[in-house]
Write a structure and sequence with these properties.
Organism: Microbispora bryophytorum subsp. camponoti
Protein name: SpoIIE family protein phosphatase
Keywords: Hydrolase
Pfam families: SpoIIE (PF07228)
Order of helices and strands: HHEEHEHEEHHEEEHHEEEEEEHHHEEE
Mean pLDDT: 85
Length: 432
């Protein structure tokens, strides 16, 4: 048996570094395969990783041909070292005798673009196959290379996530002793200033020596858009801290990749599913609401997506409190095909938005009943807070009044648009 060459050994090291052969498909990779097929108007497309003696399809579109043909052509593409095209498999010495060429489904055309790491190692390829011999256009191949680049970006995100998880696991030994310090590291030390918006947040822990899993953040996106989220992971202590760090990192990284709120939650779900795959530990899951703010005239357009989380509450300038709640929205990370719901709303001048975790609404009132969403809504309607800071103070007063009825941590994120004011010089309305 010949020894593996130095270049091949380096390539296989990269495959192992990215854990590419163990990569779960996920919606992003499936979309890449589907787009490749659409670009080429071909019935079959795959995303494959080439190991030392294994070729694994981590995503596929259409009914894939027999495994042997895919393995041999994908391995040949990696050996070739660049865009690889077989115009007519019947005329190709390596593929002509394959049953998938001679028989069903009758593959005649094959094109591949390499999935290449930043340091130039080929992990595998994005491939398309057709049942008719044909040429591959330059634009088609360029698109295929771009799709291979997107696959590499996804693997980079997953590698970074894996490294983050490993780092968090190393912190577990002293996690309980460092609870307060660690809790602070899981939350932004200060919220950024958003032009035309007021933002405030608070964390109300039940225990001073145990790390909770509630989280929130507000951060800039492209252009003048801003992303924000709030949620709650399962469990307490060091495991919850590690999971919280993973969730926060993934949400921010996913939002940079694609800020659509539904897509962000789907990406988080894929990461949590992969984190649990093949493990014996309890399934990691969370609830979350993710939103995007877009400045618009004297207010902000808001797009929200939720996964198993209580509804956000809009406190309008006229004192009306209304839930901003998409229909549905299931837990993140635990279901096979979860549904995440999305809705659009608007914050006008004088309006505020409250996001909170269920430690607030599941608190017990003096009568023994849960506060629930109706109780919180009624309390806010009576208090009529007019700003983000006032919302925080109102909720703080409520938690204080409930006392021992609060049995879980509560995170709060409040956003408000300053009320319109009349400028003496012009008499026109403008945001404060």
């Amino acid at each position: 048996m010949p020894l593996t060459s130095a270049p091949e050994a380096s390539r296989l090291t990269a495959v192992r570094r990215y854990a590419a052969l163990e990569t779960a498909s996920g919606a992003a990779l499936d979309r890449v395969a589907g787009l490749a097929a659409r670009i080429f108007h071909a019935p079959f497309a795959t995303v494959t990783i080439v190991g030392d003696d294994t070729v694994r399809a981590i995503a596929a579109h259409g009914l894939p041909p027999r495994r042997g043909l895919v393995e041999s052509l994908c391995a040949a593409a990696v050996r070739h070292g660049g865009p690889y095209v077989v115009h007519d498999a019947l005329l190709d010495p390596q593929a002509a005798g394959d049953p998938a060429v001679r028989g069903e489904p009758g593959i005649r055309f094959f094109a591949a673009a390499l999935i290449t790491t930043p340091d130039g190692e080929a992990l595998g390829s994005v491939n398309v196959m057709d049942v008719h011999p044909r040429e591959a256009g330059a634009e088609e191949l360029d698109c295929l290379r771009d799709l291979a680049g997107l696959v590499m970006d996804e693997l980079e995100v997953r590698l970074a996530t894996h490294r983050t998880v490993e780092i968090e696991r190393e912190l577990r030994a002293g996690a309980e002793r460092l609870a307060r310090t660690l809790q602070r590291t899981l939350l932004p030390p200060v919220l950024p200033r958003v032009p035309g918006l007021r933002a405030a947040a608070a964390y109300h822990p039940v225990s001073a020596d145990e790390v909770g899993g509630d989280f929130y953040d507000l951060f800039p996106l492209d252009g003048d858009r801003w992303g924000f989220f709030l949620g709650d992971v399962c469990g307490k202590g060091a495991d919850a801290a590690a999971l919280t760090s993973l969730v926060r990192y993934t949400l921010r990284a996913a939002a940079v990749y694609d800020a659509d709120p539904h897509a962000v939650l789907a990406n988080l779900d894929a990461v949590l599913q992969q984190e649990h795959a093949g493990g014996e530990a309890p399934v990691p899951y969370c609830t979350a609401v993710f939103g995007v703010l877009q400045p618009d005239d004297d207010g902000f357009g808001v797009t929200l997506a939720t996964g198993g989380h209580p509804p956000a509450l809009a406190v309008r300038a006229n004192g009306v409190v209304e839930p901003i709640h998409p229909a549905g929205g299931q837990l993140i990370g635990i279901l096979r095909d979860p549904h995440f719901a999305q809705v659009s709303a608007r914050l006008n001048a004088g309006d505020a938005l409250l996001l909170y975790t269920d430690g607030l609404t599941e608190a017990r009132t003096p009568t023994g009943s849960m506060l629930d969403e109706d109780g919180l809504t009624a309390y806010l309607a009576a208090a009529r807070p007019t700003s983000a800071d006032a919302l925080l103070a109102t909720v703080h007063d409520l938690i204080t009044a409930l006392g021992k009825g609060v049995s879980d941590d509560t995170a709060i994120l409040a956003l408000s648009v300053p009320p319109a004011t009349r400028t003496p010089s012009s008499g026109s309305l403008g945001a404060a």
